[in-house]
Structures
1.
Amino acid sequence: MADRILNLKSIGSRGLKNAVKGNEYRREASISYGILIIGYILLSLGAATGLIGHNLQGQFVPICVYVSLAVSLNLVVGISGELSLGHAGFMAVGAFSGIVMERMLLAHMSFEPAVMILSMLFGACMAAIAGFIIGIPILGLRGDYLAIVTLAFGEIIRNFMNVLYFGLDENGHLKFAFNHTIEGIENSQRIITGAIGATGTKTISTFNWGLLLCIFTVFVVLNMKNSKQGRAIMAIRDNRIAAESIGLDVRKYKLMAFVVSAALAGMAGCLFGLNYSTLVPLKFNFNTSVLILVFVVLGGVGNIWGCIIAATVLTILPEAFRQFADYRMLTYAIVLILVMICTYNPTIKARVTAIWNRINPFKKKGGDKPKKKKTGKEAA
Amino acid sequence: MAPKDKRDEIRETEISETGHTYENRQEIYYNDNVGGRAVFVDSKEQYGPDEPYNDQVYLPEKDKGKAPVLEVKGLGIDFGGLTAVDNFNLTLGRTEIGGLIGPNGAGKTTIFNMLTKVYEPTRGEIFFDGKSTKGMTTVDINKAGMARTFQNIRLFDKLTVEENIKVALHHTTDYGLISGMFHTPKYRHEEFRIRKEAMKYLKIFGMTKTADYRAGSLPYGAQRRLEIMRALATKPKLLLLDEPAAGMNPSETSELMETIKEIRDRFQIAIFLIEHDMNLVMNICEGIVVLNYGRVIAKGSASEIQSNPKVIEAYLGKSRGKMEEEEKNEDIEEALSKGKLESAASGKPDAGSSGKEVG
Amino acid sequence: MNFLTNIISGLSLGSVYAIIALGYTMVYGISKMLNFAHGDVIMIGAYMSFVMTQYIGANGWIALLVAMAVCTLLGITIERLAYRPLRGTGSLAVLITAIGVSYFLQNMALLIWGANPKMFTSLFKGMSPVHAAGGKLTITPESILTIAANIVIMIALTLFVSKTKAGKAMRAVSEDNGAAQLMGINVNQSISLTFAIGSGLAAVAGVLMCSAYPILMPTTGAMPGIKAFTAAVFGGIGSIPGAMIGGLILGLIEIFSRAYISTELSDAIVFACLIIVLLVKPTGLLGKKISEKV
């Protein structure tokens, strides 16, 4: 058939630039890894030169954990387009199963990297199983109903953590009890004690492990985005009915996104758990789930490097302003609301962009701005 | 049965009973070899109680030796108490381009939705490729080889044009989740292959230059074409097009006509389309079904449909002559109820003559 | 007798949930948003009542009225400043904003009243408990009045929504925002009114809840808020009778699982029931079926 010239005038020149996705995946990948490496170098340098205080250094591992969590949640919220309010639940599963695994392994071996990797894998597996069990029944629900059910599951998981008891007996064997304490075990041999949580964990998490985890998470999520599975997941997000009409099994792919995301959250949770000698289940409540969601939304739904930055900045800032204790969270709240209004309200957004264009010193000629990802309706 | 005049033919098939029963119809596909472009075979299916129509099985000459790709028997659906579609029968040849036309709200898209199992039919059976589709889901239907487009375009807006097609090539892309997550050599090999394949489809539609555009940013006509490509990429045996030319200008429409024919010739598939553009329908459809108020009011080739009085009535409303005729019918009914049977029978109007009055 | 006591305290707790759930359900119905700040409006209401009775020494009922007035204003303000600019931009943006508002209210309360729990004086302090069944069954005045308040509010609200012009306008807006606007309904006014009613009721719920469980902290509203939200979804979000049924059932489940199964697992059981209901009826007990046109 004769080649036709497509009428592209209707797109308009500006629209044309927005329209071309080009090598977006490659660009997104290089930016994401670049940010991770540069961030790592900057923070390490800051710590080495003493510019970054001790308190903030203590936040290095949590920063990595939150980056991984945000990236993995983005797989559900951004790429699969489902609102999940229970991500902390998977983090909790990963943390506590990782801690139990660590204690068991440490009773028999002392090579820490192996312990770390095995614990993380175990945490990922347990979280994936939890994600699978939860995902199967609920992924038929839509929109806000799915959100509330994930919230409910997050709370259920946390509640169960409150009644779990793990300990090691004198032979180094694992003891388990549900809803009652284990008798005849020394305090030092208790691993998880109900609402008190995990105690006596050997803290083997380091910033390097954190970086590795972040890179792994970004690697998996970006690769998945640019694969058969990722495309199917995004297709279902964009138009469920059309996706069914071309033979995509909606539940299967939603479940896939959910389980992979849960597994990655489990790994992050494990890193988090092995960073503290004591850890209470209350840490993994609704607020933590919301915190991760805030990272994702502020970073840009579906935007991987955006949520890396958001997670880093929003973990550092409250820590850096600790001296303004009472006002910092209030400011955080106000800033959160303002940012949401400025980025999502069309009128205000246009005004902010206009002002930014006027004062932007790096402005290129002809208003040729770098493409800004539009995130407004992706999760709508 | 070779007709001299189309109008006569309609009259004949309406009035005559050829004695073909549904059971021996299968035989007829293979054996009946009457000259002319198409063969008409009566089906056993009873006419609708109030709207008898020319319910014949219609297959283009070239498809006669093969089993039909789609057979629909007595299909119907109720929404609440409302019967949206009733007693819909259809037989579609292997490489036929069939058309489904009718006024707005006639139930055309509902039929597509039943064929693709977006809706579960209340009554009737659908045989696709010889198998009943009972209990199948939309996904199963597509896997069995039926693909469709939508009246209101449903693309994956945030994916690129190329990705839209790659998604549809999903079932022929052979790698698992682990390969997808870690980009193994198998992944690279398969991705390279489907990229080439996607480009092949884009080339047919002359859209290779737009491969990297977001689907949502394309102009309307290109979006419609992309939707057809996406459906084609699932390698269907039957392609359902829901108003493919809607919103296109005349030159785009005539290009589309060529494209549809080329798709059929190249992929040797059947196409069944809903369209309001009569030029398109009359030019490319080999068999046409006309639907009104959820019931088939006519079936046949383009020229037969164009001159069918019921079709004209459905589209343009009743002519004065027809209305008078109706009044006459009422008189007859009245007469019948009074028992003047003989005189009433003699007053019955000629079924074929009403077409003239429409002009 | 224990069983009866449990039923009564379950109904009482359920009534509180039902009243809070009303706010969630009405707001969701009209603006399709998950207003996570609603739980904190309850807390502000309770604090206002606390301030009126403790610092100013006002009568409990006047304190309740003041709390309602403050919360009504607060609800309208929140809607006007935070939610209205984001109307029509998708649920995620509004959800995060609602969470921002929730943080704001909690931290505001933290700044003003501090983190230490305050002991709330019951609204019904002077009243004596009712003894029934020959003194074996003691019913607190809080229980009776909470249940009564719930019934009165339900009836009043149902009448309001079905009989009055403003109520009908609210229903029209929740059915189809755009069409309602074309019919000359002031959508902004209707949404403001919804927030006003929801927040006013939140104040009532806050006072009733703190009368029964008299510990007041900046995070007091969070968990009841989530549970009431669960109740609203349980009954079918957007439906007023659904909120009532959902709230009562949830209250009963919570009290009974605390009494007979496990205190620690009671929340888990409540949420598990929600999930089971949604699996059987994906839009809740009385929710409307959503269908997508192809």
Note: The longest helix of chain B spans residues 185-204.
2.
Amino acid sequence: MTTPIEHIDIAQTLQSMAEDIRISLGGKQPLLIGIHSGGVWVAKALAEILGADFFDSTLGTLNIAYYRDDFTRIGMHPQVTPSDLPFAVDDRQLLLVDDVLHSGRTVRAALNEIFDYGRPAAVTLAVLIERDGRELPIQPDIVGQTIELTQNQQIKLINNPGLELELKDHEGPA
Amino acid sequence: MTHHQLTENGQLKHFLTIEGLKRDLLTEIMDRAEQFSSISGRQVKKVPLLRGKTIMNLFFENSTRTRTTFELAAKRLSADVMNLNINTSATSKGESLLDTLHNLQAMHTDMFVVRHSQSGAAEFIAQHVAPHVSVINAGDGCHAHPTQAMLDMFTIRRHKQHFPDLRVAIVGDILHSRVARSQIQALSTLGVGEIRVIGPKTLLPADSQTLGVHVYHDMAAGLQDVDVIITLRLQFERMQGALLPSANEYFTSYGLTEDKLKLAKPDAIVMHPGPINRGVEIASTVADGPQSVILEQVTHGIAVRMAVMSMALGSHSEQQETSA
């Protein structure tokens, strides 16, 4: 099932994701982690809907810049906000949130980084947009919308300051 | 000094000297160091950024702090690091510096961290390495020690934030100090309000005035209302001839004691690049006192060296635009 991007209602999508999270993680005192920067926005929005008591701590943020697999190809990221996990992850149920799941490389890097902080009991992955083009065996547990795009298309979450989706075509191979 | 330590698009390729670098680049080093410093507080104190890179610490001159923090910085970035103490190694068997270098390069080294007693040694090595290799100067003779200067700037920024408002005094053996030279360049590039050097005439370079600093021979006058006091080690090993009557007499005139410290601003910080000679350039009560940030400097050395190493190795990347 795929929805045209112009028909995606982000507020409604977040509501239905929050419901899915409540069903699968309710009572497990999960810890919430957003991936910079779009994942942090989505995580914040979900925390607002689910309420202060649902998660066991304030939001953790991950910046996977030091865990990327393309340092040799593209060098340092221009700006890096450091990761900040204000809790111990050992033996805890984590909810990892990103805006768009595409190749799966970002989530791979995020999982590696999380395990440098400790050994969680379980990690659940929630994404606002799941698109095609996976390059790694990584699948989301909770999905807002599933869309199909061509190889040259790129979808991005922007905060303007409300959350909006932006679709871009770029030349050449993805 | 040419700008060959930068790539064509202005990124750091080698880090040989502060001279000629722009304020933006120095600020970027400090910003990245700030980002790296949080890694030391984690369960696994490393990130995989430089995994698979080989870094050689070439120390032609003794060092504990600098070599150790360079080694830790490389390890926290997941690079493979080798420490070579060249004094006790090949060159003592008659091999030339270039031959040593070419042999180490043949082992597919990505970066050399160089300390040498000759001024210009790191730059010489940078001129002779293959294009994909970076060179970091960890101190060359009386010339430069740029990572030390940057960790000092980082330490100052942690405590004082706004450089143009500051009055900074560097006390002691400026003449033999590569640290002081690099610090003065960094402080003036960062726009520090006033830089003072304090010391006996025999230990100040003849061209002090031209460095853009205010020269004092009297501690009481020089320390008046300063925000930062940087004390320097007396470098007996580099002194030729009778530059000083005695260490005791030096301490009486230029040693930083609690009484002299009171002349500075009440919230002034006291720094020293180490190793300290207690009772020569600084009193123990000051070195261990509440205004001392000497051990913080050591801690910050790791993050600053992580920043410089990753920036230099990142500048060799195949392309500069970010991928989707």
Note: The first strand of chain B starts at residue 54 and ends at 59.
